[in-house]
Amino acid sequence: MVTRSNPRSTVAVSITDRRPRTEPIFVVQFRVCMPAYHALMPAIRIIHRTPLPPAEAWRRLTDWERHGAQVPLTRTIIETEPPTHVGTRFTARTGVGRITFDDTMEVVRWQPPAPPSAGLVRLEKRGRAVTGWAEIEVRPLPSGGTEAHWREDLRVRGLPRLLDPLTVVAGRLVFTRALTRLLSPRPGPGTRSGRG
């Protein structure tokens, strides 16, 4: 569904996933809303189903060092003592040599799953280059397994806002790849088993 009003005031664009009665294993949604044509606010939502139990899915998705291993030329620097808690800070640093790009995040909500309740962690981006937030939620499925939700809203400072749709597309590809690999039943690079 696409809705437009006077371009001098508000333009809203929404893409709604109309899913059949049988839920797909994997869904990607994104929404771009703008108070004016030059003020884009990207939002990304990814849904992924896995046979892993919620506790294992949570453990994998909140191992921040593993996140960096899923993104080329990226490593995660943990700035606070483990285990993760409200106030934990870490930086995803992408680049080579002195040319790097930092995405610094802080945990502002930490709610591990306790069946039948879902688990939820919210991160606020505190860096100079990247702002916004991210949420990871794990929900137990009645038939077993887990439904993981990744929601993210980000902005790159200095990037023209008209390019925000490209940020959404690039972010969606990166986060989809990371989520798929982190929750793969067969461990891959950066998804070592047995680590909490």
Instruction: List the strand order in the largest sheet.
Output: 1-2-3-4-10-9-8-7-6-5
Beta content: 35-45%
Unreliably modeled segments = 1-24, 29-42
Shape: globular
Range of helix content: 10-25%
Largest sheet: 10 strands, antiparallel
Number of beta strands: 10
Q: What number is the mean pLDDT?
A: 80
Q: How would you describe this structure to a colleague?
A:
- This protein has helices at residues 54-61, 64-69, 164-182; strands at residues 2-4, 11-14, 26-34, 41-50, 74-78, 89-96, 99-111, 119-126, 130-140, 146-156.
- With 196 residues, the chain is of the alpha+beta class.
- Strands 1-2-3-4-10-9-8-7-6-5 form a ten-stranded antiparallel beta sheet.
- Strand 9 and strand 10 form a beta hairpin.
- It is globular, with a radius of gyration of 17 Å.
Summarize the structure.
Helices cover 17% and strands 42% of the residues.
List the helices and strands and how they pair.
Layout: E1 2-4, E2 11-14, E3 26-34, E4 41-50, H1 54-61, H2 64-69, E5 74-78, E6 89-96, E7 99-111, E8 119-126, E9 130-140, E10 146-156, H3 164-182
Antiparallel strand pairs: 1-2, 2-3, 3-4, 4-10, 5-6, 6-7, 7-8, 8-9, 9-10
